[in-house]
Design goal:
It holds the Pfam family MaoC_dehydratas. The chain has 282 residues and is α+β, with helices and mostly antiparallel strands. The chain has two domains: 158 residues, Hotdog Thioesterase (Thiol Ester Dehydrase, Chain A, Roll); 115 residues, Roll (Thiol Ester Dehydrase, Chain A). It is 22% helix and 31% strand. The protein has an eleven-stranded mixed beta sheet, covered by helices on one side. It is globular, with a radius of gyration of 18 Å.
Length: 282
């Protein structure tokens, strides 16, 4: 088992790792409170960074704060595959994410990624959330942090009656984009997240969805790129709460207040993602 004092190589996030995740069994929650992992992530993959920037609307030489999530996500998956992690990974829902850059990562130096797990008390609905706190370090200094909130056990569903109306949003529309039918596979090729719900109609149906949906962090990255263009400056932090899925081949509209630090991504009249961001000081 991995302990806080051990540093092991961070495994790549790929189809093989996903296959292990699909068949991982649930275990006891008693040991999960002590679960903390430490991985050697090596150097930033600059070739992947260039593909990421080109696909999501960033400048070719950019280092977006959202790119750190690709490293953190690998650590999250490796941590959840630890025998001490008590939940099945298949079916877990990414409910929220917060990424903050303390110092810009030096692509020429290796990264060490530490992750700790916290199981939250059950919600009134019975839902159980798991929070993974990750830090990326270089030479002992924290460069970025990433907190991911996952729904590990779903609670009772709330039935809503009546006609659905478009949800009100604050701010003005600053961007819009249409999610291509192949966007899930394209983002998976960059991020390594080959969850079947993002790939094809048949694979999404096998996982219980009517149609494939785009990765939540794809929407956050597109929003980050658009916000940077709108503000004319780089973002050093962005948070996200995932409220509704974004099906492939759907339009996303991004809203933000010119004087504020909040954003909302709307899809089919529903808030898909909302959060806050921080602009790098001049």
């Amino acid at each position: 088992m991995t302990t806080p004092t051990q540093t092991t190589p961070l495994p790549p996030l790929n189809a093989l790792l996903l296959a292990r995740a699909l068949f991982k069994r649930a275990g006891s929650q008693r040991a999960a409170g002590a679960l903390r992992t430490r991985y050697d992530a090596g150097h930033l993959d600059t070739a992947r960074l260039q593909r990421y920037n080109a696909a999501l609307g960033f400048a070719a030489n950019a280092l977006p704060v959202t790119f750190y999530y690709l490293v953190a996500q690998r650590a999250h998956m490796a941590t959840m595959l630890d025998p001490r992690f008590p939940f099945r990974i298949a079916g877990m829902i990414h409910a929220g994410n917060d990424i903050t850059e303390q110092c810009r990562v030096d692509a020429g130096r290796p990264l060490v990624i530490t992750t700790s797990v916290a199981i939250q008390p059950p919600k009134p609905s019975g839902a159980i959330h798991v929070v993974l706190d990750t830090a990326g370090e270089q030479e002992g200094k924290t460069m970025f942090t990433c907190r991911s909130d996952y729904v590990a056990v779903r609670g009772a569903r709330v039935t809503r009656n009546g006609t659905r109306h478009e949800e009100p949003v604050h701010g003005t529309q600053i961007a819009s984009w249409t999610v291509d039918a192949s966007a899930g596979r394209a983002y998976a090729a960059i991020s390594g997240d080959w969850n079947p719900i993002h790939l094809w109609p048949w694979s999404a149906r096998l996982m219980g969805l009517r149609s494939p949906i785009i990765h939540g962090m794809h929407t956050v990255a597109r929003a980050c790129a658009a916000l940077e263009q709108d503000r004319g400056a780089r973002l050093t932090a962005i948070s996200a709460r995932f409220r509704a899925p974004v099906p492939l081949q759907s339009e996303v509209r991004l809203f933000a207040n010119p004087a504020g630090s909040a954003y909302t991504a709307l899809c089919a009249g529903r808030v898909a993602v909302e959060g806050a961001f921080t602009v790098q000081p001049p």
